Amino acid sequence: MKRRFRINQIVIDPNIRFGKPCIKGTRIAVADILGLLSAGYTVDQIPEQYPGITKRDVLGAIKFAVHLSEQPSHIALEA
């Protein structure tokens, strides 16, 4: 069964941040959100760092990253 994937908060535009996935209507990349999460910020704290985005946007970025991590990859990870 093929699953459809749709996250309205994320856009990929080659003219914005060199085509990195970003929060719609901003230049805030999904990688920026993930970086803050890895630094210990909570989902509720991140919109305080980036006024103009919402908790829903942050959750959309996480959902997008999860979706990407579930896809087959051809990148070899070094041990």
Summarize this structure briefly:
With 79 residues, the protein is mostly helical. 35% of the residues lie in helices and 5% in strands.
Provide structural commentary.
It is a single chain. It contains three helices and two strands; from the N terminus they run ββααα. The chain has 79 residues and is mainly alpha-helical. Strands 1-2 form a two-stranded antiparallel sheet. The N and C termini lie far apart (33 Å). 19% of the residues are buried.
What's the SSE blueprint?
Layout: E1 10-11, E2 22-23, H1 30-38, H2 46-49, H3 55-69
Antiparallel strand pairs: 1-2
Describe the structure using short key phrases.
mainly alpha, 2 strands, two-stranded antiparallel sheet, 79 residues
Question: What average pLDDT do the residues reach?
Answer: 88
Tell me the radius of gyration. Answer: 13 Å
Strand content: 5-15%
* Anisotropy-based shape: globular
